Amino acid sequence: MTTPIIRRLDDLRANLREWKRNGDLVGVVPTMGALHDGHLSLVRAAKASCDRVIVTLFVNPRQFNSPEDFAKYPRTEIADAEILAPLDVDALFVPHVAEMYPLAHATTISISGVSEPLEGAHRPGHFDGVATVVALLFNMTQADRAFFGEKDWQQLLVVQRMVTDLRLPVEIVPCPSIRTESGLALSSRNQRLSDQARARAVALPEALFEAADAIAKGKTVDNAIASARARISIAGFDDIEYLELRDSATLGPAQADRPARLLVAAWLDGVRLIDNVAVPPSS
Ligand SMILES: Nc1ncnc2c1ncn2[C@@H]1O[C@H](COP(=O)(O)OP(=O)(O)OP(=O)(O)O)[C@@H](O)[C@H]1O
Ligand SMILES: CC(C)(CO)[C@@H](O)C(=O)[O-]
Ligand code: BAL
């Protein structure tokens, strides 16, 4: 089975007309490619609950706040189509940048509140780019369900906020983070790490899980975060952009009686890694 690649919106719409006429439930998995098992878990979830599954592959220039990061982002379309083949998706939508953003394109979607701290503070404009492209992809694919990974926890909340606020007729399905056996969350960017750096990178999830466990057992948040920071630094990370406990749903200050999330972004050998874990309420 080869993966049908569609590049033009008109062609996608022609398929969609037929699928919608049949009453098929359409699922979309938005990605930027360089597919790994994390993406494939989203595709499997989509296949399990939808009649038609569209995977989108678009390295969205508008969500990159650093031109260097955009230039270095892995682009592996042929391998991506191959890795998807056994999953038998209905379309791999790979639009050209001009299909997404014709010259006259002048609309940006900006979400306040949940998009402002953490990634929003460290990557100015990032979530405007994400929200704009995700809204476009929802409209282009006319998806009934969309699948997003919890690895990008803040992105998930931003997209959920947008869907609620704009009354978009799409159900967001969160999917758990897929990790290597040693605990590292799979990510397209971390494919750039050397084997040696990848081994050191495991300190990130280890520190997160240990801190989450310690907080749940009553250790103060400040002490738990200080220990986690020390562990990550000792492993050789160059910079910790943030490591914070936040309310799981709002990303406001964490409260003891509500689910919280410990979220981190840190640099190792020129690669920026993010991760997050749940911290259950203490009462
Ligand atoms: N390890 C993972 N487990 C579950 N979902 C994941 C994982 N990694 C990425 N995803 C999800 O896949 C979708 C597409 O993500 P994307 O293409 O940006 O890949 P990525 O691995 O997150 O890349 P990077 O973080 O390096 O940009 C997003 O919904 C993202 O949350
Ligand atoms: C959702 C997304 C595909 C939008 O470009 C991207 O932010 C990603 O891959 O997580
Ligand atoms: N996975 C989130 C997309 C980004 O880092 O731009």
In the CATH scheme, what's the topology name of the largest domain? Rossmann fold
Number of strands: 9
Termini separation? 52 Å
Low-confidence stretches are none
CATH superfamily of the largest domain: HUPs
- The level of helicity is 25-40%
Count helical runs: 11
Query: What value does the Rg take, in angstroms?
Result: 19 Å
CATH class of the largest domain: Alpha Beta
Please tell me the total number of domains. 2
CATH-derived architecture of the largest domain: 3-Layer(aba) Sandwich
- Global morphology: globular
What does this entry look like structurally?
GO terms for molecular function: ATP binding; pantoate-beta-alanine ligase activity. It comes from Paracoccus aestuariivivens. Pathway: Cofactor biosynthesis; (R)-pantothenate biosynthesis; (R)-pantothenate from (R)-pantoate and beta-alanine: step 1/1. With 283 residues, this protein is an alpha/beta fold. It folds into two domains: 5-175, HUPs (Rossmann fold); 188-275, Pantoate--beta-alanine Ligase, Chain: A,domain 2 (2-Layer Sandwich), CATH 3.30.1300. It contains eleven helices and nine strands. It has helices spanning 9-21, 37-49, 67-72, 77-84, 97-100, 119-122, 126-141, 153-165, 195-201, 203-216, 221-234, and strands at 5-6, 26-31, 52-57, 91-93, 145-149, 171-175, 239-247, 260-268, 271-279. Strands 1-4-3-2-5-6 form a six-stranded parallel beta sheet, sandwiched between helices. The longest helix has 16 residues, at 126-141. The protein starts with a strand and ends with a strand.
